[in-house]
Amino acid sequence: MKKRNIFWGVVFLVIAACILITELGYFPGINIFKLVLAAALIALLIQSIPHKNFAGILFPIAFLCILFAKPLHITNLTPWPVLWIALFGSIGLSFLFPKKHWENKHAFSGSYNNESTAYTQSAGEQENGSYVQTEVTFQSVIKYINSIHFERADLSASFGALKVYFDQARPEHEDLLIHTETSFGTTILYIPREWNTILNVDTAFGNVEEKGMRSPSPDAPKIHINGDVNFGSLEINYI
Fold first, then answer.
1. Exposed, middle or buried by CB within 10 Å (0-12, 13-18, 19+), for 179?
2. I need a surface site. Which of 9, 96, 216, 239 has the fewest CB within 10 A?
3. Which residue in 92, 66, 64 sits closest to 80, CA to CA?
4. 86: how many CB neighbours lie within 10 A of its CB?
5. Single pTM value for the model
6. 170 phi and psi, to 5 degrees?
7. Over the stretch 84-138, which tens digit does the pLDDT of each residue have?
């Protein structure tokens, strides 16, 4: 059983137990809606910490402050001041502590060619390396992957929009990886319809949508798409 399934299973069981206890009258005056929403926000916060997803950490805290402003005696900080604090705090921490995706390359079963990597950050349109890294914050970026030996892409979109076209990529290996993290933004991927797509993305207050018809070929590479979507959307278009 996957760890995330255990995590969310426990979260929903705790929510169910809290509702039951409240309805039995043990905690009179507690708002069930606030209780459920608070549990979901705390779960998102816990899930975001290992990934250094600062937006996924600070915004749940901000919403918790808004929900419980009166008992915490912080009504002067809600709602807008605490949301602005979360926004600029997320941006500042993202610059001070950028994600180092290349440290996690051992988690992928495919090969990795360090000599041909291409590191980019919100700049340029054409990518020819086997490894592509793109981080987008408060802007819209379009990438075209033209590599003849593409292996892996690490994509991050926070408060922005990122479009990446993989239809011109010519991979040498049968296992490929796209790791995407989206927070308060949109990531749109254009994948060849004949590739064998294996989707494994966690969502929290976000959604993943697949568009177009897939026509997977037995000889085509396997593309593993994983990552997290928090308060955003991931769209996969098969072309």
1. buried
2. 96
3. 66
4. 20
5. 0.67
6. -125, 85
7. 999 889 888 877 876 654 444 434 444 333 333 333 333 445 656 788 888 887 7
